[in-house]
Amino acid sequence: MINFVLLVVKIINIKRTAGKLKPMKLLCLSLISLIFYQFAFAQPSTLDRNIQNADSLWKSNHLNLAIEQYKLIIKQDSVPEEYQSLIYLRLAKAQFQAKQVKECRATLLQAKTLPVVPDHHRLIIEELEKKLSGVITNERTSLPASLKSAVILYVTSSKSADGKSNPNKAVYKTLKQALEAIPTILRKVGLPEGPIEIILEDKRYDLDETIQLHAENSGTFDNPVIIRSASENRHVIINGGRELKAWKRETNPQILARLPKGSRSKVWVADFRENNVTGIDSLVFGGFSSKRAAGTSATFNTFPVPELFSNGIPQQMARWPNDRDTIVSLKDFRSERALGWASDPDVWFHGYWLYLWADAYEKMGGLSPRDSTIQLQPPFNNYGFGKSKWHVVNALSELDRPGEWCISVAQRKIWYRPADGVRPAKMVVSMKGPALTAENCNYLTIKGIDLQYLRGDGMIFTNCSHLTLAKCSVSNTSGLGLRIAGGTNHLVHSCTISSMGRGGIDIDAGDKLKLTGSRSIIENCKISNLSRIDRTYTPAIVLAGDGIKVRNCLFANIPSSGIRLEGNDMLVELNEFTKCVVESDDQGAIDVWGNPLYRGNIIRWNFFHDIGIPNLHMAAGVRLDDAISGFCISENLFLRSSNNQFGGIQIHGGKDNFIEGNIFADCHAAISQSAWGDKRWQESIKDKDHPMYKAMHTTDWQSEFWQNRYPALKNLTINPDINYATDNVVINAETFVLRKSKRFEILNNRLMKGEIHPSIATDYKRYIVPWHTIPVEKIGPYK
């Protein structure tokens, strides 16, 4: 039928005189509409076919005809409620492109009143209305403009800090002293508007203790506090490490006897006292499933583990096996080398003890005198033990290759084996941390500061509002980069976090019970090479709370997830995810778990590629696990992002999820579903130990307020496994929806085989259609 319409249009366009053509054109267009209406809707046909026919008109540059066909589709009573806003938005976008401003506004107004309007459609309506009013949307977030300072305080260790060289210049020897001056400055009568700037003039500041800010160090709306480097081109370094200069070859016979034979003449030792190393008084490891590190479902505790670096590269703690894990139950393990482990008081085991998504450290307790099996010191991990994947950590008896090291807290010594014939040089041990903590400190900006060699976390902010962290970096740190707990109006902009023992940013802001948004933004950040110590559930970002945006970031080289999402009304857009989930099983580059009340979340315009390890563990670009519902995943690009039993998007038991306008390439399955069915859904609602039950009994989701905000909650307890996949393009896949249940709805998706394999985001342009405009050039960080 569509070919007939296009043929008639072609006939109309045969060159005629302008005067004779107009009446003929109007008549023909009327006839086409009538014929199309009778054929398309009087005959049995699917909604897919009707949409495709109208779409083909648009793609063939017959926009006015397409508009008329979208209107005809809308008039039909047979369009399910869940798809009505899809058609209205098709019409509105076509009208916008045709410059039919008045008609477009009317269509958007009607769309708002529909019984079902998914959250990503609400966002599109809002953005389209702004465009009609001449407002530019999706603009990059700008850093606060530089204003004339009200006061400038300088921090330097040079002689000028005594104030004698320039009595008109406020100079302090320490940042602490400068911060203490802020309350007095703010009390000054007649203080002009403008920031109070604290400028760090030295190249490097070595931490003696954590920098602490409190409420009295806060700025105000008129006089925010800014701590920054003296020059944008040369960031100041805050260093938590201690350079180890005093090394000796190990000659102690007792130590040599414990070393591997091949290392006995090659190991050097550094004494804490001789190198002025202080504060390292314990060696404790945790991990996601460790009872030692117990926290909330989204986070768990950081332990301040010391690390050793050579020329900025983290060195490997002495371990066995060296380059892999052994796979055997601890109770079945027998080896003479365990005798060496038992003689060291600080030997630990890192393992995936029962599940390949939950790692933990266990401490060596000794060997059983009865059967020489390994005994561990309690507390043990939360899940128990089975045939496990594990290795030994910090065993002096395993210090057998260049680049390995071992620490004894009791003896206050570090042993290191450098490359053959090389004396240890430029070795740094992480000693202090975190670099900075702030509590109840508002209107604060930290700009252009690089943190390195920290033992523990980088910076921690508790109940701080109007906080900006700009152009900072955290690297070579054993904990998290940034932790933000509470407060509102945070901006983390153009920051770099890399080479971390744990994750990148842990933010919990906004109130997901009261649905109060935090108005927080994380933008243009690069977060990579994480989880060196704690391997799972230490993502680039833990995103918890309500109303946080994550935009234009890069997440790369992470054993588990890029983002762990636990909250409501989040917008994750224009980010690049690559080489995530390269070790953990049963995870997604974006991972969500356990709470069907996480609503209003939109994941759009992201590029997921090379997620997981092919033919190994289950890994997806986006994983919605255990009843996650109401997510909108739209207009993303997926490339090689499905592994094992997972598609590019995996849904486990959830409902009311909308998957729309995505392009999947070289994924063995675009989507996978692990349906629960009615029985399991009802059991989970009633099971007091299930996270679904706990969420539903700690949230006022049945209130008028909640159900007005998220209308689909009215049917939360019934009809599980209903999800919607529309307008997706699937390239070179074996399956569209793997394990598709009967309740999984699909509409107007395209499956294409034998296509050229994309490699970068711009390769997807050929598959982008006018009604799903994916801004591929804007994905990822910008300069």
SSE topology:
Layout: H1 2-12, H2 18-42, H3 47-59, H4 63-75, H5 81-97, H6 101-112, H7 119-132, E1 151-155, E2 170-172, H8 175-180, H9 182-186, E3 196-200, E4 204-206, E5 211-213, E6 225-229, E7 236-239, E8 241-244, E9 248-249, H10 253-258, E10 268-271, E11 308-310, E12 313-314, E13 316-317, E14 319-320, E15 326-327, H11 337-342, E16 348-352, E17 360-367, E18 374-377, E19 389-393, E20 404-408, E21 413-416, E22 427-430, E23 436-439, E24 444-447, E25 449-454, E26 459-462, E27 467-470, E28 473-477, E29 482-485, E30 490-493, E31 496-500, E32 505-509, E33 520-523, E34 526-528, E35 541-546, E36 548-551, E37 554-558, E38 563-568, E39 571-573, E40 576-580, E41 587-593, E42 602-604, E43 607-609, E44 619-625, E45 632-634, E46 637-639, E47 642-643, E48 649-652, E49 658-660, E50 663-665, E51 669-674, H12 677-686, H13 691-696, H14 704-709, E52 723-726, E53 729-731, E54 735-738, E55 744-747, E56 750-752
